[in-house]
Design goal:
By secondary structure, the chain is an alpha+beta fold. It has 2 domains: 131 residues, no CATH class; 38 residues, no CATH class. 21% of the residues lie in helices and 33% in strands. The protein is built from 5 helices and 8 strands, in the order ββαββββααββαα. Strands 2, 3, 4, 5, 6 and 7 form a 6-stranded mixed sheet that branches. The mean pLDDT is 83. The structure holds zinc ion (2 copies). One zinc ion binds next to loops.
Amino acid sequence: MVHVKLIVDHIKDTPIMLHIDEPVDTFPLLASMQNVDGCSITGNVQGDISVVREYKNIRVTGRITAPLALSCSRCLADYTSFIDTNFTLFFRKEAAVAASAEDELELGEMDLMSSTYSGDDIDLTHEIEEQVAMEIPSKPLCNEECKGLCHECGTDLNTSSCSCSKEPVRLAFNALKNFKIAVK
Ligand SMILES: [Zn+2]
Ligand SMILES: [Zn+2]
């Protein structure tokens, strides 16, 4: 198993630039999400990451990209997409966090982006895969306006129409539609 690791002692006030170009197998979370919910990552996870020491913290900022193959959750059409995400994370040494509980107030919203590390290195593998996983759509759509398939006859309503209903049916609003029927 390959890991994207930072050696803490190497991180100084001058930013270190890190280029990442790793297969999906490097990231256990992403590997487990492959081919789930009509989505797979079709190439390497790539990124440019900058690491710098900032006071007691280590600041990691970067941009991660990954190519995707998806199946639309409405019309089932296959399409491709691309994850392109920016992130900022702060790492603090684990012991220092416990010893400085009163620092918590100063940090405030920064805590939301904070992680801790212990030992001599920081493994970015998990942080990177979480950034990518957050960008994978749980309900992929080939297009925000995708009309989907007719749930009666299966006609792709993006390319043709059918005579099942005069009103266009949007599968995304099924719940709303059922509600309307109920109150009629
Ligand atoms: Zn679609
Ligand atoms: Zn139909």
